[in-house]
Amino acid sequence: MAAFRAVSRRRRWRASAVLFSVGDESDHVLLIRSGRVKVWSMSARGTEAMLAIRGPGSMIGDFAAVDGEPRGATVTALEQVEADVVSGGDFRRFLHEHPEAMFELLTRVVARLRESDRHRVEFASSGVAERLARLLLELVREHGVPDGAGRRAIAIPLSQAELASATSASREAVARALRELRECGAVSTQRRQIVVLRGDVLAEYAAR
């Protein structure tokens, strides 16, 4: 990544800042150094659909830089974010001069497509509790931190509405699913915080 950073400039965003919005004509690329962002769009029903959460090491904005199309999603900072920013033109030259980076980009694209396909299958065949369990396992694996009692807490403060948008469910259905997961001892919840108490129980739900 040294060659990438050589043509980049450093930038910071405060929590809740919008890095770019769906439909924007911009084509710059960001490589996140610290902090986390939420990638989201609006559904056909006019509700927010959370597509992903990205953290340090993630590259965002690369699709628009490659195909020249408007942004396909909005990216919002969940906390203070610092990233290396490269213009679309410099990014394309970087890929041309570094074939190994082109291969890495292709690998990232394939991984995103596989993730998208997996989510579509899960949403079509699973209940809300099962989908929520899979999401929580993914979040604690990628963004979990020790809570001081030998357990893992999800470091990102997510509302029930955001969990609902990420699982294609209603807020009421997510509230019921969280209650079910609490009652079986899989998780504990406080305001916008979730701690995984029994990863094995959560995994059993996810495997249903």
Spans with pLDDT under 50 lasting ≥5 residues? none
Q: If you consult CATH, what is the topology of the largest domain? A: Jelly Rolls
| Rg from Cα | 18 Å
The name of the CATH architecture of the largest domain is: Sandwich
How far apart the termini lie comes to 40 Å
CATH superfamily of the largest domain: Jelly Rolls
Secondary-structure element series: HEEEEEEHEEHHHEEHHEEH
Helix content: 40-55%
Put simply, the count of helices is 8
Protein described:
- GO terms for molecular function: DNA binding; DNA-binding transcription factor activity.
- This is CRP-like cAMP-binding protein.
- Keywords: DNA-binding, Transcription, Transcription regulation.
- The chain contains eight helices and twelve strands.
- The protein is α+β, with helices and mostly antiparallel strands and 208 residues long.
- The chain starts with a helix and ends with a helix.
- Helix 3 packs across helix 4.
- It is globular.
- The model has no long low-confidence stretch (mean pLDDT 89).
- The chain folds into two domains: 123 residues, Jelly Rolls (Sandwich), CATH 2.60.120; 81 residues, Arc Repressor Mutant, subunit A (Orthogonal Bundle).
- A four-stranded antiparallel β-sheet has the order 1-8-3-6. A four-stranded antiparallel β-sheet has the order 2-7-4-5.
- 44% of the residues lie in helices and 25% in strands.
